[in-house]
Amino acid sequence: xxxxxxxxxxxxxxxxxxxxxxxxxxxxxxxxxxxxxxxxxxxxxxxxxxxxxxxxxxxxxxxxxxxxxxxxxxxxxxxxxxxxxxxxxxxxxxxxxxxxxxxxxxxxxxxxxxxxxxxxxxxxxxxxxxxxxx
Length: 134
Fold this sequence. Notes:
Blueprint: H1 9-17, E1 20-25, E2 28-33, H2 48-64, E3 72-82, E4 91-100, E5 104-112, E6 118-129
Antiparallel strand pairs: 1-2, 2-4, 3-6, 4-5, 5-6
């Protein structure tokens, strides 16, 4: 039996995929993940869904750093442009909060491979609620 509140779904996914925080600043979050065989497609390239999740988490974390503890946010739109396949890790994704309005925030970022090559670029929009939805 577990005691207390279970971890948030995002925390579970981040743990499952092996994401780890490298740097956290106001309006910025850097995450990394190792390229593991179980996360790669048949060609030995990190699956695009993993790269997408890493970027969503990095950009979302940057947005979360720009809201109050009472507020809540969720991804409304995320656009990803894949540039290069990632075959070895770590992959590092940086998310940056571009603008925060009263109900909407915008963020962008990049994921880079172990050699510094851009793997993917992303930009997204987050809805902000004044209180956590029920």
